[in-house]
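> example.struct
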């Protein structure tokens, strides 16, 4: 694993610090892939008209990660990918899929978010593979893990593999495909956890 710099975002005023109290942040605290580390009242993530909004009415401290970066940026600056720091050169493999964002809370809760246009089955695979690499293979634990996929149109799932993956996410990782409405999910952190 590549040596990580402590995020400049993690200051003495922050509750979430790189110690074992916050295992996900302890494992992944490089400033290169942290988009924000603060108590903002709303986190809004958007790509190509697809949007995920997390309302943080209690002003919990949150760390927002950009997990999957644009391929053009990745080719020039591969070291800025959270996956590069874990698995090195494997990140260049086109089959190496990952979700778009992560949000980690001061309550040791992790949200993994995929902003997906149309390929629902691929989005399910991206969420599961991200869990495998960031959590399972690296023995990183979190109190609770939520997975979210925002999509324009949820297809009628016909493939057995897609049904199996969706069921696994629903059963083990608090996935709820009914949250998505017209390319947008808006949820309240306090009500979710």
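> example.seq
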């Amino acid at each position: 694993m590549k040596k990580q710099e402590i995020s400049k975002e993690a200051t003495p005023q922050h509750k979430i610090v790189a110690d074992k109290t916050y295992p996900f942040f302890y494992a992944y605290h490089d400033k290169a892939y942290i988009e924000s580390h603060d108590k903002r009242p709303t986190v809004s993530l958007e790509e190509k008209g697809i949007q995920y909004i997390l309302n943080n009415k209690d002003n919990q401290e949150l760390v927002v990660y950009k997990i999957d970066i644009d391929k053009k940026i990745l080719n020039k600056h591969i070291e800025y990918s959270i996956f590069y720091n874990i698995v090195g050169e494997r990140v260049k493999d086109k089959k190496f899929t990952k979700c778009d964002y992560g949000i980690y809370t001061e309550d040791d809760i992790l949200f993994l978010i995929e902003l997906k246009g149309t390929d629902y089955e691929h989005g399910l695979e991206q969420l599961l593979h991200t869990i495998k690499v960031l959590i399972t293979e690296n023995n990183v634990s979190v109190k609770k893990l939520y997975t979210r996929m925002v999509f324009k149109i949820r297809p009628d799932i016909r493939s057995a593999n897609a049904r199996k993956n969706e069921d696994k996410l629903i059963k083990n990782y608090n996935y709820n495909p009914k949250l998505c409405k017209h390319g947008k999910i808006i949820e309240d952190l306090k009500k979710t956890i």
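> remarks
The CA atoms of residues 14 and 61 lie 8 Å apart.
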